[in-house]
Structures are given as structure tokens and as C-alpha cells.
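Quick start: what a row looks like.
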Amino acid sequence: MFSRIYFVLVALSMLSPINKLYSKRLCIEHGFMPDYRFLVRANMIKHPYITMSSFSITAVVTFAALIRVFERPYYAFMFDLPMYDFD
């Protein structure tokens, strides 16, 4: 699931206007490569609320999924819920 999210983010970053050939040429002329960090910094300057909102939503969804995965055995043990037995 997380690899799909990663590929969607990479695809969106490739389609961003900051990642065009003219922008890349300007960055290379000034001595650095336009990578993902450059894209994030440029988006933070241009669209701070959208960038921070998307980072916050992504973090909440990721941590919620991790908590659900790792706390499931604890609740099953404490409340005698049936786990997945394939016997």
C-alpha cells in the first residue's frame, strides 16, 4: 500500500511546474540538482498550506495504519478475540 502512495507522489512531483526543463536548467546553472527536497522547499514557499496539509494527512494515515497493525495482537490477547488461525 505504501509503495502505491510513493509512486503517486513521485508521479505528481514529475508533473509539477517546478520540475520542468527550464527550472532544471536554472538549478543546474546555479550549481545544484533539483531533487525531491528542492521540490518540497519550492512548494512550501509557493503553497505552504497545501503542502503542510498533505504532509499531515499522509503522516496521520501512515501512523494510524502502523498502530492498527502492531496493536492488533495486544487487543486479541487482552480480550480473547479470535486471531487468524489457519489450522
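That is the whole record. The chain has a mean pLDDT of 80. The CA atoms of residues 59 and 65 lie 10 Å apart.
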